[in-house]
Amino acid sequence: MASSRRGVEVITPRATLCYSHLTQVDDNGKFRAELVFGTDLDNAGLKSMAALEKASADLIEAEWPKKAKGKKTGIIRADQTSTDDDLHNECLGIIRPWSKPRDGVNTIKFKKLPPDKGGPILLDEEEVRDLFYDGCQVIAAVCPFTFDVDGNKGISWFLNQLLFVADGEPIGGGSAETDANLAAACGRDIDEECAVDSLL
Q1: How many other β-carbons are positioned within 10 Å of the β-carbon of residue 9?
Q2: What is the distance between the terminal CA atoms of the chain, rounded to a whole angstrom?
Q3: d(C-alpha 20, C-alpha 133), whole Å
Q4: For the segment 142-173, what is each residue's pLDDT rounded down to a tens digit?
């Protein structure tokens, strides 16, 4: 793969976490997740989605000026995925950010909101395993980067940080192990408190 160019870090809208490998790498040696953005985003969520799309478009233009047509944006639409369920069939978009360990260490920062108005709490590996599951609601800090593999060119995403926002419908039989304080924290309006911009 040719050297890649990085874009600016972006905070995603609220998403459903799917097909995650957060504490153990997948078969390709990556920590990864699929983030599915629903069609029910509020105004703040729609602005975050627009920022995600702009970060991708800006990086494509910077890397391939005047030749941007046909480059993969890194944002998958509902009609472009082979996953056939209501979540994927009715989504606004999907991204699949990932990270590789550095010196054997997972560099993704995992966080949750405390029960009070304080800033996000950094989680250790055991807490991540207990809290995050496929189907929970998250917000992520991601960074686009360009790729060029055998003529296949476009944008992919690094996963820098992941914030647990709320429980959701478990996918694939997963379950959440949370406490009463976390449930109270997840009931807050994150956008209103501006926690997302300061946390991630």
Answers
A1: 14
A2: 29
A3: 8
A4: 999 999 888 889 999 999 999 999 999 998 74
Q: Output the pLDDT for position 198.
A: 41
Domains, the chain: 10-199 (2.40.50.140)
- Answer whether 165's CB lies under 8 Å from 15's CB: no
b/e string for 152-184 if b means 16 or more Cβ within 10 A?
A: ebbbbbbbbbbbbbbbbeebeeeebebeeebee
Name the token pair of 99.
């990270």
Quickly state the pLDDT bin for 3 (edges 50, 70, 90). low
The span from the CA of 35 to the CA of 147, in Å, is 20
Ordered alpha helix ranges (H), 4-138: 43-63, 86-89, 125-131
The enclosing H or E element of 10 equals strand 10-11
Query: Contact at 8 Å (CB) between 140 and 12?
Result: yes
Half-sphere exposure (CA, 13 Å, Cβ side) for 155?
30
Across 119-134, average pLDDT: 95
